[in-house]
Amino acid sequence: MSTPTRSRGARRAEILEAAARLFAERGFHGVSIEDLGAAVGVSGPALYKHFSGKDALLAEMLLDISSRLHDAAAGLVTSAATPQEALSALLRGHIAFAVREPYLITVHDRELGNVPDPQRRQIRRLQRLYVEEWVTVLTELRPGVPAARLRAATHAVFGLLNSTPHSAGELPSPDAADLLYALSHTALVNIP
Questions:
Q1: Do the Cβ atoms of 181 and 95 come closer than 8 Å?
Q2: 175 assigned to some structural domain
Q3: What per-residue confidence (pLDDT) applies to 1?
Q4: Potential cystine with 106: which of 40, 123, 164, 165 (Cβ 3.0-4.6 Å)?
Q5: CATH number of the domain encompassing residue 133
Q6: What is the average pLDDT across 83-95?
Q7: What is the mean pLDDT of the chain?
Q8: CB 99 within 8 A of CB 176
Q9: How many alpha carbons fall within 13 Å on the CB side of residue 160?
Q10: Whole-model pTM above 0.85?
Q11: Does residue 5 form part of some domain?
């Protein structure tokens, strides 16, 4: 009994991965159900066994990554012994995601407006919670700096980290990760 469930879960993951890459490359409206099916070796209509439609697929994709980022950040902050360790872990976690999955950054940046409203609100809520994990750590590192300033700095650093879709391939991944870490860490520990 568990094999079909795993198979279905693996197929859903395969569809989500292919969709993310296609949406990043061609845009949400530039990809048809048939394109998505072809990318995973099935007919387009076969995708309806897994998702009610293309917008549901996009919503699940962006909810999943927002949830994964938030959950990982909460775990990293909770398990860190010091605020410095927490910041380092947050940076390394986000950088690993950005270097590994730049196409998801592109899809989120371009296509969030195509997600149905209830799911878009959930995604935004998860994103706000993710930012607040960072702000909590920065508050401990930079006491006296207003939260609004820390939040703005966090968003600015996300802009830097999320630039990977534009810079992917320029440097080998480990070098890119080291550079992103050095730049973003320097920016956050020196918030004026």
A1: yes
A2: yes
A3: 41
A4: 165
A5: 1.10.357.10
A6: 98
A7: 92
A8: yes
A9: 20
A10: yes
A11: no
48-57, 68-77, 95-104 — most confident range: 68-77
Q: What percent of the chain has pLDDT over 90?
A: 82
Q: Which domain holds residue 163?
A: 53-189
Q: Are 77 and 133 in contact (CB under 8 A)?
A: yes
CB atoms within 10 A of CB 115: 23
Helices (runs of H) and strands (runs of E) counted in the chain: 9, 0
The answer as to whether 73 is a domain residue is yes
Let me know: does 160 contact 183? Beta carbons within 8 Å.
yes
Q: Which residues pair with 156 in a beta bridge?
A: none
Spatial separation of the C-alpha atoms in residues 139 and 150, rounded to whole Å: 7
Q: With respect to residue 160, please indicate whether it lies within any of the assigned structural domains.
A: yes
| Residue that is written with structure tokens 């012994």 in the block | 81
Contacts of 9 (CB under 8 A, 6+ apart): none
> Distance of CA 159 to CAs 95, 138, 144, 167, Å?
12, 17, 24, 12
Tokens standing for residue 39: 């990318």
Confidence of residue 3 (pLDDT cuts 50, 70, 90): very low
Query: Do 164 and 188 contact (CB within 8 A), yes or no?
Result: no
Q: Look at residue 118 in the predicted model and tell me its pLDDT.
A: 95
Specify the number of domains making up the chain. 1
Q: What angle is formed at CA 151 by the lines to CA 109 and CA 190, rounded to 5 degrees?
A: 115
